[in-house]
Request: fold
Amino acid sequence: MTGGVLNVAAATLRYLSHGHGAPVLLVHTATAPNAVLHTLPALPRDLWAPSLTAIWTTTAAIFSAYAPRDAAPPETLPAPPSDSDTVADALDRAVAHGDEHVIKFTDTAAEVYTRTDHPGALAATVRATHLIPSSR
Reply:
């Protein structure tokens, strides 16, 4: 499972630089594998490898087809939140935004940040709120 966790982190950070290609669709390259990782304990162990293989094949295909060739220029990317409780701030911002893709991406990115302490994970949540129209 460690490889799956690392891949979710990589997909979350990749959204920061490449999410502009297809903002809603590319959210799923992080959230779908994270959802599969959360279901693994409920599955028989012999289904773990096929489940992870299927989701990573799918997310790689989505990224290959929809991500832009070039990353966004670093100077155009948002900084991570700087409040004292950055995870709570990110989650509050996502809920206020209202779009379900932003909310589930932020939940995934918050897990990544909690595991890795990588500020890019929370910056990616800010990027999602800029790229995906609010439902409110």
About this structure: The chain has one domain: 2-131.
